[in-house]
Amino acid sequence: MNTASTPARSSATATSVNEAMGRRLLTDVVFKHMMTVGGISVIVAVSAIFFYLASVVVPLFMPPAVDLRNQYPTPAKSDQPTLAYTGEEQREIGSRIGAQGSITFFRFDTGEVLSETQLPLPEGVQVTAADIGERRTFSQAFGLSNGQVVLVKQGFAVTFPGNKRLITPELSYPLGEKPLDVDPEGKPIRLLGMQQSEDGSTIAALTDDNRLLVSAVKVTTNPITGAATSEVQQSAISPVPAGIRKLVIEYKQRELYVLHGERSLARYNISDKGNPALLETVEIAPEGQRVTALAMLSGGFSLIVGTDKGQLSQWFLVRTEGANFALRRIRGFAPMPGEVTVLAPEFFRKGFIAGDALGNLGSYFATSERLLFVEKLGDQPLVALGVPPRGNGYLAQDKAGRVYSARVENHYPEVSFSSLWQKVWYESYEAPDYVWQSSAANPDFEPKFSLAPLTYGTIKAATYAMLISVPLAVLGAIFTAYFMTRRMREIVKPTIEVMAALPTVVLGFLAGLWLAPLVENNLAGVFLSVFLMPASMVAASYIWHVLPAAITSRVAPGWEGAILLPVVALVMWLSFQAGHPIEAAFFGGDMPNWLSQEWGIKYEQRNSIVVGIAMGFAVTPTIFSIAEDAIFSVPKTLTSGSLALGATPWQTLMGVVLLTASPGIFSGVMIGLGRAVGETMIVLMATGNTAVMDFSMFSGFRTLSANIGVEMPEAGVGETHYRLLFMSALVLFAFTFVVNTLAELVRQRLREKYQTI
């Protein structure tokens, strides 16, 4: 034996051990830093998602930006009072409408006059009244001292000579340049109301001798010769209200509003132009106040009323009984500092601007009830206002003839807390409601952006899914982990976990095209199975318990659950078979129709029951897998000790196993809830996808995630619709974050409480 080599071998062994320890320590350090970097990266990624979503959403709540303010004298060559201002959509050219028939085009920013046109009037005839129709039509009417009316329409032709945009103002005469005879007696027209459209024109005129006349004019053009012929229908309203101050015709030319006295508004039905009829008279201002301004919002359905106390309110027709309507005050707005002197609606949105006697200009949006801004322009009362077609500026003239212009960046006026989360009373609706309806074919359509029904639908979907999945998953996990044999567990657990990999689009397809009709055709059987299934399992268990040992001993312990499989299939089949006679005997053979006829419960084929079953099927594997692992991981020493102390298996399960595994079970339920909240494809394909606030199991719904999936492709980048879809994603993000945070706090509390059991 060579003793000299022993120290060398010992030294080599020590060196190899040190090297192994060094490698292990190095590996620990590397993996520690990798885990740290990975964790920080996850936090950074989640934070980046949040800040990106917030960056898209925040502009919705920013106030409008007003800049490029300018002042200049009234842009006109003729000395006429100003009726109103308007302009073209690029905010390059403004238009001043004179009360005596002059129309002046000028530079929007500087007031430089480009052209001025005086309407061709008969010799010796003067303009005695004027009115502006719906802003989007660019039409104006002028009443004359001989009982005639001239209707003129502005236009802006856009050309590109030399690749440079050129906007050329132009005028046209929808009823011809020759004035239209409105008063056969030729009396001067004192007040005028007008609307013009492609279908025809309607004119209401108050003559100097206090007669109220209604004229309907339809112009037909011969497609071959180009000759135009006018068809005129005239009638008179009697009796005439005393003290008429304003005439307003709604855009569809079916209603005439007559402001008279201090605050009275008479509404006439002029659908039949030959037979106008008084429908109602309403006081549209509080007692002690005087109406000083009246205008119709874009779309011709709502009236905006301003008073001498600065109060502003919106009124429109509301259905009462049958086909009857009544004018109702819908909402009020933040008051102006002084008496409201003039109102000007936007062209296409439900916004308007107001001027008061103290020189203030206020910008409002009706549906969202927002006061967007108030600016002090001067010390003189404002007498004329105008808004370009895109609502991207304003023109205002005060009593001293000073004109104020500005650019306004006002992209999202329809968004407010009330419009997103509270009931909103929309035009043509019988009552306030939660509505999401982002688009329609009607050009008069007003987008409706309530997130409340989408959030409600998300909660509803998650609730029905969890009602089905949590009992199945948790109870199945308890049986699998605690009572099932190892061999059977090795078959059942992987099978259920594989279910989680099934694409949700396949589940949605099956739910929409197979399950929904199946449930509808067997509704009584579905409800019957809900009661029979638990009862049959209890009955089967009792029968198994009382069977002779010679029979039960043939089944190995832990395999008893397999015997329930044929019982479940048989009970389901019997329930469906018995459901049809029950429907025939008690529900007229059609339970969905019976619910609608007898109880007023509307049944939709793709409803919450279908979604609950399909989503429950999708969520169950996730909850089952986590809960089963938590229960199976309870140390055997705890269960053995409990049993050794005399506790029964059930007592051990309830008092030891479930308490110890409760943090893991709770985590599984919360993860399943997160999966249900964010589910998209099943909801898209298995519900009616209607945004309604109804918790009925027989109705459909629309969730936030499904709404994003459906509407994001059609949303214009940067528009209100687009940003609100991102806000939906932010709401989902915040909901998930809050729920997961609370779940983690509860889980940690459960762990601290039961880890010493």
Tell me about this structure.
The chain has 757 residues and is an alpha+beta fold. It has a domain at 462-754: MetI-like fold, CATH 1.10.3720.10. Helix content is 39%, strand content 27%. The strands form 8 sheets. Strands 6, 7, 8, 9 and 10 form a 5-stranded antiparallel sheet that branches. Strands 1-29-28-27 form a 4-stranded antiparallel sheet, with no helix packed on it. It starts with a helix and ends with a helix. The mean pLDDT is 88.
List the helices and strands and how they pair.
Layout (H helix, E strand, L loop, with lengths): L4 H53 L7 E9 L8 E6 L5 E6 L3 E6 L5 E6 L8 E6 L6 E6 L3 E12 L6 E7 L7 E2 L7 E9 L2 E8 L4 E10 L6 E10 L6 E6 L5 E6 L3 E6 L7 E7 L7 E6 L5 E6 L4 E8 L5 E9 L6 E6 L5 E6 L3 E6 L4 E7 L5 E5 L6 E6 L3 E8 L7 H5 L14 E2 L10 E2 L2 H32 L2 H14 L4 H18 L1 H24 L2 H4 L7 H27 L4 H8 L9 H25 L3 H9 L4 H30 L2 H6 L17 H8 L8 H35 L3
Antiparallel strand pairs: 1-29, 2-3, 3-4, 4-5, 6-7, 7-8, 8-9, 8-10, 11-12, 12-13, 13-14, 15-16, 16-17, 17-18, 19-20, 20-21, 21-22, 23-24, 24-25, 25-26, 27-28, 28-29, 30-31
Helix pairs in contact: 1-15, 3-10, 3-12, 4-10, 5-10, 6-8, 10-12, 11-12, 12-15, 14-15
